Amino acid sequence: MKLHLFSQNTHIQQSITITGSKSESNRLLLLQALFPQLSIENVSNSDDACVMDEGLSIKEGVVDIHHAGTAMRFLTAFFAMQEGRSVILTGSKRMKERPIGILVDALRQLGADISFTQDEGYPPLQIEGRRLDESRVVMAANVSSQYISALLLIASRLPNGLELILEGDITSVPYIEMTLSLLNEIGVDTSFNGNIIRVMPLMNEPESKKLVVESDWSSASYFYSIVSICQLGTQVRLSSYKSNSLQGDSVLASIYQQFGVTTEFEDNQVVLTKTSEKLQLHFEYDLTHAPDIAQTIAVSCFALGIGCSLSGLHTLKIKETDRLEALKVELSKLGAQIDVTNSELFLKPSLTIKSEVTIDTYNDHRMAMAFAPLALKVPLYINDAEVVSKSYPDFWRDMEQIGFLISEQ
Ligand SMILES: O=C(O)C1=C[C@@H](OP(=O)(O)O)[C@@H](O)[C@H](O)C1
Ligand SMILES: C=C(OP(=O)(O)O)C(=O)O
C-alpha cells in the first residue's frame, strides 16, 4: 500500500490513545505463560505482540514469529526450558539475517539443546525443550539487550536461578532494567551490580496479580516529532502514560524539550505542548540506551533545519533493516546532507525539503512512522505503509485524526 500524505494543520489540538508498549507486553506475555495467575491489561495490539501470544501457545512444530525480534529472542529461551516440547522457531527473511548466536550459546551453557537449521548463528532454530540445570552464564552484552532479557525472563523458573556475567559495554540498558522491574513486580528477587545480574529461583508461587501495560513510548515519539514541527500552542495529549515509566524511550521528554516541546503529566495522560521556537543549530546525543527513537530524531532535526550528530547507533544495523543506511538513502532523496558510520549519523542543517518524494520503508515500521511527520512541511509518499502494524497498527488512523490528509495511491 502506497500512501500520499499532506497536512496543512500545523496548529493541532488532539487527544490520542496509543496501544500498550510492545516491549512490556511481550515480557508480560512470557511471564504469564510461566505464571498463569498473572493477568495483563492494555496489551499491545501490535503484530509483534500477536505473534508472541500465538507462539507461546504452540506445543510442537513450526513457530513463525515474522519480523518480531523480541518474540524471536524471548521464545528461544522459553522453548529451551519447556521439557518435552520440540519446535522449529523461524521468522521472516530479515529475521534470518538477525544474529542470535550469542543467546543460543548462553542457553547452551545452561544445558539447552538448540541447533541452527540453516546458517550457523541465525534463525531458524531447532529447539528440544529440556530441564536447564546449570545457572551460570557468561555472555557478550554489546550486541543486543534482548538476549539478556530473554534469559532473565525464564530465570526464576530455572531450578537454580541465574547468575549472568556480562562482557563488553552493555547496550540498551533500560530494556534490561524494565525486565528486572517486571520480575520484581511479580515477587522475583534480582540484583544488577556492575556487570553481574542475579535472579533468584522463585520459592513460592506469586499471588494472582493484574499488571497494567503502559502505552508505548516509542510510538509516542512520532507525536513528539509532529508537535516539534508545528506552530506554538500545538498540543497533543497521549494516553495512557505515567511519569515513572519503565520504558527508556521516555527520555523523549528531555530530548524534545530542546526542540521546543514541553512535557507534562496529567492523570493518565502525557501532554505535549509546543512552547518555544528557540532552537539550537546543532543537536548531539548518544542513543546507546534508546536506539528505537533514532529515526524519529534524525527526521525531526531535518524538518526543523537543525544539524545533528547522533552516536551509540551500533545496534541499528541489525534491526528490521540496516536503519543507518536506510536513513541515509531516504533523507538524501529529500535533499539532506547526511553521513553515517557503523554507529553514528551526521546531518547538516538544511533549509529546503524536496516535495512529492517517495519514501521506501524496507519492511521497517519505524521508517514509515518516522518520515510521516514531514507531511507537515511537504507532500510526500510512503511505500508499503502497512509496515506500521509491527508496533502500531492504528498509526495511519491516528494521523488522520490529527488532520493529515492521507490517500491510497
Ligand atoms: O527488549 C526490548 O523490548 C527491546 C530492546 C531493544 O533492542 P536491542 O537491545 O537489540 O537494542 C529495542 O531496540 C527493541 O525494539 C525492543
Ligand atoms: C528493533 C525493534 O524491534 P525488534 O528488535 O523487537 O524487532 C523496534 O521495534 O524498533
UniProtKB/TrEMBL annotation:
Q: What is its EC number?
A: 2.5.1.19
Residues at the catalytic site: D292
Where's it found, cell-wise? Cytoplasm
Q: Which InterPro entries match?
A: Enolpyruvate_Tfrase_dom (IPR001986), Enolpyruvate_Tfrase_sf (IPR036968), EPSP_synthase (IPR006264), EPSP_synthase_CS (IPR023193), RNA3'P_cycl/enolpyr_Trfase_a/b (IPR013792)
What does the UniProt keyword field contain?
A: Amino-acid biosynthesis, Aromatic amino acid biosynthesis, Cytoplasm, Transferase
Q: Name one GO biological process term.
A: aromatic amino acid family biosynthetic process
Query: One short Pfam family name for this protein?
Result: EPSP_synthase
One Gene Ontology cellular component:
cytoplasm
Q: In which pathway does it act?
A: Metabolic intermediate biosynthesis; chorismate biosynthesis; chorismate from D-erythrose 4-phosphate and phosphoenolpyruvate: step 6/7
Which residues does phosphoenolpyruvate bind? K22, G69, R98, Q146, R323, R366, K390
Q: What class of enzyme is it?
A: transferase
* Reactions mediated catalytically: 3-phosphoshikimate + phosphoenolpyruvate = 5-O-(1-carboxyvinyl)-3-phosphoshikimate + phosphate
Q: Which GO terms describe its molecular function?
A: 3-phosphoshikimate 1-carboxyvinyltransferase activity
Q: Describe the location of the Enolpyruvate transferase domain by residue ranges.
A: 37-399
Quaternary data: Monomer.
Its function, per the record, reads: Catalyzes the transfer of the enolpyruvyl moiety of phosphoenolpyruvate (PEP) to the 5-hydroxyl of shikimate-3-phosphate (S3P) to produce enolpyruvyl shikimate-3-phosphate and inorganic phosphate.
Family the entry assigns? Belongs to the EPSP synthase family.
Name of the protein in question? 3-phosphoshikimate 1-carboxyvinyltransferase
**Organism whose genome encodes this protein:** Imtechella halotolerans K1
